[in-house]
Every structure is written in C-alpha cells, then in structure tokens.
Amino acid sequence: MQNRNISSVLKSVQKPGRYIGGEYNSIMKDKSKVKCRFAFCFPDTYEIGMSNLGVRILYDVINREEDIWCERVYAPWTDMKEKMEEYSIPLAAVESGDPLVAFDMVAFSLQYELCYTTALAMLRLAGIPIWAKDRSEDTPIIIGGGPCVYNAEPVAEFFDLINVGEGEEVLVEICRLYNRMREDGSYTREGFLREASHIEGVYIPSLYKVSYNEDGTLREYEPLYPDVPKKIRKRIVSDMDKAPYPEKLIMPYIETVHDRIVLEVYRGCIRGCRFCQAGMVYRPIREKSPETLCKQAKCLFDNTGYDEISLISLSISDYSRLPELTDDLLKWTDPAHVSLSLPSLRIDSFSEELMQKVSSVRTGGITFAPEAGTQRLRDVINKNVTEEDLMRSVGIAFRGGKSNVKLYFMNGLPTETLEDIEGIAELAKRVVGAYFKLPKPERPRGIGVTVSVSCFVPKPFTPFQWEKQDSFETLIEKQQHLKNSITDRRIKYAYHDAKVSRIEAVLARGDRRVAPAIALAVEEGAIFDAWDEYFDYDRWVDAFARCGVDPDFYTTRGFGLDEVLPWDIIDVGVTKAFLLRERARAYEEKTTPSCAEKCSGCGANKLGGKTRWCK
After folding, report:
1. Continuous H helices in 400-467
2. What is the three-class DSSP state of 564?
3. Most CB within 10 Å of its CB: which of 351, 441, 452, 458?
C-alpha cells in the first residue's frame, strides 16, 4: 500500500503482514508493458483468501499473459478498515499498492452468500460506486464469479459482468477483448459489455429486463438486444490434465488457514445428494491422471518446501484411481517426510488401507457425514450410505487409534420428522457403543463423539430447489428437541445458528428486488457477515423491512414447480427435468445410483469435457 499514512497505520493494527505484500513468489510486472490491469478481490481476510485454491489457480493463469497483470486484494480486518476510513486510505492491491480505481478490471470471488456485504464494503473503501448504473466510463469493470453466481440475481445489479462457471479460459478472453477494443479505439463501457455478452459463460445483468407477475413471482428475463443470449451456459475446462495449474505458490509472511500444498484431483461429483448444490453445478466429472497429479505435487513441493499435501475434490475417495495415486505419491513423500491428507472421505469408502497410507487419517480426530439420523431420510436425500457403513468405518477408526469422531448432520430437510431428529441422537449413541464393543486393548484412550448439525437451505440447481425452508421457530424447536434427546455425556452437540441460515436462504434464493436491502445493510455498517461476531440478524431484518423485502417469500413459501426461478437464466448443464425426477424420487423415498454405477441422464454431458462417466 502506497500512502503517506500507511506506515504509522500498520504499526497500530493486528497482523500488518496481511497488507504489506512482497511475499516470495508474488508476481511483479513492468506497468509500461501491461495493457490490462486485473485486481482479483477475495471478500474475506488475507489468511482465508490466501488459502483459496481458485484464487491461486486464476492468479497463475492470468499472469501467464505477458500484457495482463493480475494482483490480489483482500478485505481489511475491522481495525484496518477503521484506520483507512479515518485517514482516507483507499483499498489497494497487495502487489503494487495501487488503489483499485487504477485498475481496468476488478473481480470478486463470491464463495458464500454472507460475503456479499464484505464485497460491497470493499468497493466502498475503494471509492467505486456499488451500483453498476452509477459507474462512469473510466470506472473499472466490476466482475463477479464463484459458486454464488449460479444465482447472481440478488447482487446482479452491483456487477457489470458475471463469469458463470470455471474462469481459467473465460477471464483471459475477457481481458483480451478489452485489450483489442482499447487498441483499435472502439472501446466504450457499453460497447465492451455488449461484446463480452457474446463470450460463453459471460452474463451482463444490465442487458436484461426482468418482469414480475402480480403475485410477486418472476415472469421472464428479456434480453434487450437480439444478439444477447437468452440463457447463459456455464463454462468448464474440458481436459483437466491440460488445464493450467500453479507451479509456484505465494509464500505468506503470516500463518494462513491452509499452509500446505493443495492438489485438485478432479472436478464434479459422481454422487447425487439431493441437497448438494456443488454436486450438481460442478458436473460433469473430470479427473486428472495420477501422472499429472504426481508431477504437479512434486513441482509444488520443490518450489515451496511445504511438508503436507492435501488431496481435494468434492469426494476424494470417489477418485477412480486413488490407490494408484497414493502409492505413487508415497514413493517420494514418505522419504521426504511429507504427509498426505484426504479431507473429504465418504463413510462407505473409508478403509484400513487408507488409514495406513494417509498420515492425516492416522492422527487426531476424524469426521463423517451421515447427514440424516434415519435410513428413511438418508434415502430421501439420496445419501446412499447406511448405518452399517458408518459402524464399519468408526470401527476402523477406533482400531486405528482414533478417539474423537465428528458426525455432520442437517436438520430441516424435506419430509423430516421428530423421529428423524431423534435418530441423530440414537446414531451417535450407537457410535459410542461401537467403541465399547471393541476389546479394551484395541480401543484408543477416551471416547468423544461430536454431533454437528447445520440448518438445511434449499439451494438453486438441486432437486430440492423448489422446497420451502423450515421457519425459524421450527428450526429452533428441532434443535432443542435434539438437545433433549442426547443424554450421553460423551456426546457433544453443536448446531448452526438458525438466524444465519434464514438470511443465507434469502440471499441464495432471492431475485433482484433483494439488492436494495443488501446495499442498505452495507450502508448501516455490515461487513464480515460470514463471521459470527459480526453477523447482525436484527440489522438484516431491519434492512429487509425498510426495503419492502419479505424474507418468507424466498424461504418458507417454497417455489411452484412451474414457477420461473431467479436462476433460470443460467444453464449449468443439469436439466430441470432431471431435477424434477430426482425430487419425485425423494418423495417416494427412492435412491438413485451414482454416476459410476449408472448414468441417470442429468444432462451435463452436453457441456463436453474429458470424462469417463457421462454417456
């Protein structure tokens, strides 16, 4: 940051290492040779943003272009924000220290709906108007991307351009278009956005008229011009073996959330959990080969010196060549004292072999996600795991030295009853029982089971996207009922704040009429809503009321099966017909096999991509 007051300010805030830049492997370029300056903003703290794999990949991809310079921007913590406002210090990029108004493109990665206020607060700190309609010809192009933009409507009018899907190719195409129009003299803000709308995966909200029915439901999205697409199809990277991946990582001066090598094994998911948005929107499944993964892992180890490699995907144990991959990695990681971690193991594929191979599974606790307390409800949500799977897995864990098991569940799922809630307590009790069934010499010392329960939020592009969310009062009642049902002191109970889930649902399922309330919340001081200590439910309720937004319209009302949905303008590949079939099967308590067992015709194969699953 370049400002005469910055040196004194940094001495008075927590963790000045968040703001100083100059990290090893960060990329600096000659400004005179750069035609497009790109600010990649992460609406959370430096420690979280530095650990985000998407930021790492896109920073590397964009900076491979000689005439484009991508720099990083993170949200300043509240102490720094106060000082910036006091001394009129604008939000700036980490690399150059230049303010955001000096950039051509300012892009935000929207990972979680409750980060919306932080993103808008960052624009305000930068001196950039938060509404797209208020920006001038010289204002940077503001871009939104990430998983939240599969329903971008609540924040659509804050962004000039929205990248739907994977960004490795499309962001470079956007910057090249900008450079070409600047060079040939044809650039105007309006003209650029019109041209950008022709790029697959690009959504320009200002090029659509949105109309509503008398009952408040959506009528249609109407393109303002004939050359503007009626629907925006998400972009994917077709061949993961050929996809660019960082060879170096920026090495922070301070501790971050994930100080390790993160190895992306594949994208997509062969499972079809009916509550899971990621499992639907990241289709089709595209794997990397063990050869590519080993090469990338060794390269990153040589260039960073990290002593841990985390293999990530939505469900790492579903990687079709996992035994081969772990064997190949262990050939050099064991001698180099590098540990492997597999953070997303499924109950039905946990094994003694993995316990022996993977060091992260040999130490500390372990987590499993049954999601529901009864088999009936697990069938409704298509979890496709049984109590027997769980008992087998915890038995392996206990024999392998685990003494602490964490179990993830949800409450408020469609068709859920109090019997299903009681089933969570019973399942946890049986896990404790499985520990005591082992001969004493085989047990680790001291048993602890933690039951962690979140509130169901019906998300776009899932079979449950039409469902209503339980009322706040019902969620509280269910949480209390479960608390009363847990009588074993060895079982700890933690649950998600139902107030947070209600706001999340409004932001996840809302339309453009929600935007004024988000803007008002920011004006009233909202920032870091994803952090418990800064989330203010009453401020949200007040903002909704003052802006005429009824939260129940997007939550407890549910949506009609023939209703135009706020996210219908987006095409993620998975068809609405498939989602409706899956919803019907849920109410019949019928499961659907994984993609590895049988193709269910979700429609994602139309997107192409190098995949062994789609038929």
Report:
1. 418-437
2. strand
3. 458
